[in-house]
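To illustrate this point, we now present one chain and its tokenised fold:
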Amino acid sequence: MDLTSFFKDENGKVVIAQWPNAPLIAWFGTMVATWLPLPETLIVFLDLISFGALFTWAWMEIFSGVNLWRRFLGTAVMVSVLLSKAGIFSFF
């Protein structure tokens, strides 16, 4: 098994990145919105939506990723998200 097989999908095409799907777009949008001067309760709500969206994206990549790279990426993001929620690690 060579390194390129880590990045190839079932059709033999190299896939490193893909067009963002709905959970990733939702995560990005809510993350940007949390930087705005909004009421604290809204920030908490947006943070919860952001966590759920990124968790969903990672879950989808782990179980439906097109190649080993995407599954690895989903696993790394899932671990990071959970460590972040536990207060052990922070993205930003």
